[in-house]
Design goal:
heterodimer; B: mainly alpha; Ferritin; 2 domains; 52% helix; globular
């Protein structure tokens, strides 16, 4: 069966290097952007082409993670629609579960947000190479680690206990996913020092850092004006 | 009136003040933008509200120090297990020793950082309790008595500790609501514990996530740890029945997927009931 989402995702075949370049730019430019955003009396910019997560508060934060989950679900959906050469039955099973969990997360946020939800985002993964195992595993790990860092970065902004607990319920599942993908990529890297710091802390990222990294995959950019981020 | 001096003075009297005030603290840090929007005459009222919130009685909730000491106790338990099992004459196969050393090192770092955070709040880190890794409350003859000679027994205990540890941390998140430093720290540890849980489950050839059924949370097949998974079968998140959400397979979502997509919390009391009198010796 084809879903709307599947129909929307075009074939994907640009080199892995492009993906890594996007990810690299995201991290490198984040600091610059954060500095700019700290200016007081920050005026809300009208972005005719952008979608804003909304005024500060739990609905904005949930919309933000809804955007993250939309991207994650789309990535694993595409991975399974165009599996890389030599994919094993175990890998198909693992990625199917991960996809299904991320679809659940996406649908949960959509339902919980109701009328306050941002629209369904049009996602363009054409910059990614889905044809080879190494390029897919690299991207799969980047997307998963991104998800964990996004959730861990917004916990303190949540004002409602129920939502905070739900974020906790989801982020640990994301971490379980990442530990699997990491181990498939290189056995024993389930808590590698690329993601876990010297305190044994999973690294986290701000809203600005994450949106800068993932906006290249959204046709219409996602903004968080009230959290100091507007797509350039 | 110098707001920063007032806050510094209160901090001298109450070292936990900074922690109590957070995240209102960030509003004060950004005093320039705050001031530009609120008339200066209103400032004493604004400050009064912040202090009232910071000191509001909330006896039902443990203090931040109590939460961190609870976490420290969990970390003592885990780190002791791995410190003992990665030593000489190890129960762990040589090729998997680096795998468990990764976990051990994370747990030891968690012990260290939690002690630092507790001390920073003016609290006193608890000392490590006496452990019995056989689960026998000090008799060393509990159901897991071969833990340091039988790798499969060791794996089962590691599995229970990691999956349960994730639940224990998750249960404390509401008690740190809005506390940027401490909630973020606990979330950061929580995610690493979930990585460990996944890692141990992979060695046991279990799915890295918990696939419960409608009636049984425990998907490990190890009945002695059923209680550690009780509640993982939940499919209601907030007010949403996850099984009624659309999936790629159709208009509903299977119980397996609905339960696996969300890990469930346990309270401090529930965690203590699982550990005290078995793995944590109670005299």
């Amino acid at each position: 069966m084809k879903t709307e989402l599947q129909e929307r995702i075009p074939g994907a075949n640009i080199a892995r290097r492009s993906f890594l370049r996007y990810a690299g730019i995201g991290v490198a430019s984040a600091g610059l952007l954060a500095t700019a955003a700290c200016h007081k009396d920050h005026k809300i910019k009208v972005q005719p082409d952008g979608i804003d997560i909304g005024i500060t508060g739990d609905m904005a934060i949930l919309n933000y993670v809804y955007a993250v989950e939309q991207l994650e679900a789309a990535f694993y959906t595409q991975l399974l629609l165009t599996p890389y050469a030599g994919i094993t039955a175990d890998e198909i099973a693992s990625f199917t579960s991960i996809r299904d969990h991320d679809v659940v997360h996406r649908e949960f946020f959509k339902t919980a947000l109701g009328g306050k939800a941002i629209p369904e985002l049009v996602i363009d993964l054409s910059s990614l190479d889905f044809t080879t195992r190494p390029s897919v595993l690299t991207a799969a790990k980047v997307f998963k680690d991104m998800g964990i860092r996004a959730y861990d970065g917004i916990g303190y902004l949540i004002a409602t206990e129920t939502y905070l607990t739900i974020v906790g319920k989801i982020v640990s599942v994301e971490a379980r996913h990442s530990a699997l993908i990491s181990n498939i990529t290189a056995f024993g890297t389930f808590a590698g020092n690329d993601q876990v710091d010297g305190n044994g802390f999973n690294k986290s990222s701000t809203i600005s850092e994450i949106l800068l990294m993932i906006n290249p995959y959204f046709k219409i950019k996602v903004n968080a004006v009230n959290y100091g981020y507007v797509a350039s | 009136m110098n707001l920063f001096n007032i806050i510094n003075d209160i901090e001298k009297i109450d070292p936990e003040f900074n922690d109590k005030l957070n995240p209102r603290r960030s509003a004060i840090k950004n005093i320039t933008s705050f001031g530009s929007k609120v008339a200066m005459a209103a400032m004493p009222f604004a400050l009064g509200t912040m202090l009232k919130r910071a000191y509001a009685a909330d006896t039902a909730k443990p203090s931040v120090v109590e939460v961190l000491n609870f976490a420290l106790t969990l970390e003592y338990l885990e780190s002791s297990l791995y410190n003992l099992s990665t030593g000489a004459g190890t129960v762990i196969p040589a090729n998997l020793l680096p795998y468990f050393i990764t976990i051990r090192d994370d747990e030891n770092q968690h012990v260290s950082v939690l002690k630092t955070l507790i001390t920073r709040l003016g609290g006193t880190p608890v000392t490590a309790p006496e452990f019995d890794f056989s689960g026998g409350n000090g008799t060393k003859t509990g159901p897991f008595q071969n833990i340091f000679t039988d790798y499969s027994v060791f794996l089962n205990v590691a599995l229970a500790f990691e999956d349960t540890g994730v639940r224990g941390y998750k249960g404390q998140l509401p008690n740190l609501l809005g506390n940027q430093t401490m909630l973020s720290a606990v979330l950061a540890i929580h995610a690493v514990e979930a990585r460990h849980a996944s890692a141990v489950r992979q060695l046991l050839k279990l799915s890295p996530w918990i696939n419960s059924t409608a009636t049984l949370g425990n998907d490990t097949g190890i009945t002695t740890i059923d209680a550690n998974y009780k509640g993982e079968e939940n499919v209601i998140q907030g007010t949403v029945d996850i099984t009624k959400l659309k999936s790629l397979a159709g208009d509903t979502t299977s119980v397996t997927v609905a339960t696996a997509a969300f890990d469930e919390p346990l309270s401090m009391d529930q965690i203590n009931a699982l550990l005290v009198g078995s793995f944590i010796v109670q005299h």
